[in-house]
Amino acid sequence: MAFEVRLLRFWEFSDIPKCFDGGCPAGSSFIFEQTMTLTTRPATLADAALITAHRHAMFAEMGKYAPQSLERMNPHFTPWLERVMAAGRYVGWIVEDQGQPAASAGFFELDWPPHPLDPAGTARGYLLNFWVEPAYRRRGLARALVREALAESRRRGLLVTSLHASAAGRPVYEKEGFRASVEMLFVEGRPS
Questions:
Q1: Domains plus CATH for the chain?
Q2: What is the per-residue DSSP string for 24-75?
Q3: What is the pTM of this model?
C-alpha cells in the first residue's frame, strides 16, 4: 500500500545556503511544497523494538503516565508483542518514508464472550499502538491505518472493534464510526 503525502515546509531564507543567486532580504521566508510517496508494509517480529518505542512515545505524549512506569512497561511489552504476533493475534503496519518509520498501528484479536452487540461472537477486535511521527501528522496516515485495521477486523469476521482513544486521536476514530462507550476502569493499588 502506498500513500501520497503533500508536505508543506516553512523555511527561513537564512536556512538556505544560496537564495536564488543574489541573496535574500533579512527575515524573508517562503513555503516549500514537496510531494512524497510513503509505503505501508505489514509489521514483522523484527519490528518489535520499533512498535515498543512508538507505544512508549504514544503514552508519553498523552502525559498521563509517569516516565518510570513507561520504562518498566517496555521490557514486558516487547516479549508480549512477539508472542501474540507469532500466534497471529496481533497484526501491525509500518508506514515508511524511504525506509524510515513515519507511523505505525496495530490490531489485536481479543477473546470475548458473546455479547448483545455480537450474540454469537467469541472474539472482538482491538486497535492499539497508533503513532504518527510529528512531521507526518495531519496528512491522513492515522485515518488510513484505522481503515486498514478495521479491514483486518472484517477479514476475521469480527462485528465489534474497540480502542482507547487519546484526546488527539478521538476525532480520527469518530470520523471512522467509533463512538464513546460506558466502559469503566479499575486499577489495583491506585487511589480512587
A1: 38-175 (3.40.630.30)
A2: --TT-EEEEEEEEEEEEEE--GGGHHHHHHHHHHHHHHHT-S-HHHHHHHHH
A3: 0.81
